[in-house]
Design goal:
mainly alpha
Length: about 200
């Protein structure tokens, strides 16, 4: 009897440790999502700053139509991937209805019922932990899929932002080169006599 009781005690302890591990794993995943959103917001601020620069648009208005099209395409793609990343992060945050271990009245009834023994009580505790673990594991797996997807979108956003920044940098270099090689403006001096001006 004591041997069986010890086995059930061990079983409950293992289930409790697993349950706590799942809760810790969930909190780590939520920290990851928070970091993803922080990095994404920094990229968005830098992107907005780059796009609101009047110099950026003055460069690409003068550029070839192919370069203009590529620039606009990359910008639109960046915005769409940013939205997809934010959506996946928010979906991961929504999956927060973790099943908590509840003692319930059934356990109290078992504890005070003289016909029941400790093994029945430990068995019920173990089954409650097992139920919570099964539910929470599925939830974490689903959350993990959203986080993986968000990370993929975030990496794509970083690559696109780098491409757009590089294109803009090349445009700045081209603009500086054009300004350096353009001939100086011709200054025409006018001679004005008796209200009539002529060069």
């Amino acid at each position: 009897m004591d041997n069986n009781l010890q086995k059930f005690k061990s079983l409950v302890e293992i289930a409790k440790v697993e349950y706590q591990d799942e809760l810790n794993r969930n909190s780590r995943l939520e920290e990851k999502v928070g970091k993803f959103l922080m990095v994404q917001s920094i990229i968005i601020i830098a992107f907005i700053y780059l796009m609101l620069s009047s110099l950026t648009w003055s460069i690409f208005i003068k550029a070839h139509i192919v370069l203009q099209s590529m620039f606009v395409f990359f910008n639109v793609l960046f915005i769409l991937l940013t939205l997809a990343c934010i959506c996946d992060c928010l979906k991961a945050f929504q999956l927060n209805n973790f099943k908590r271990y509840e003692l319930g009245e059934g356990l109290e009834d078992l504890a005070f019922d003289e016909d029941e023994n400790l093994i029945s009580m430990y068995l019920q505790v173990y089954q409650a932990y097992k139920e919570c673990l099964t539910f929470n594991t599925k939830l974490i797996e689903e959350k993990g899929k959203y986080i993986t997807s968000a990370l993929s979108y975030l990496l794509d956003c970083c690559i696109l932002f780098t491409i757009v920044t590089f294109m803009t940098f090349l445009g700045y270099i081209g603009l500086a080169y054009d300004n350096q090689n353009s001939p100086p403006p011709i200054i025409i001096q006018l001679k004005c006599e008796k209200g009539i001006c002529s060069p």
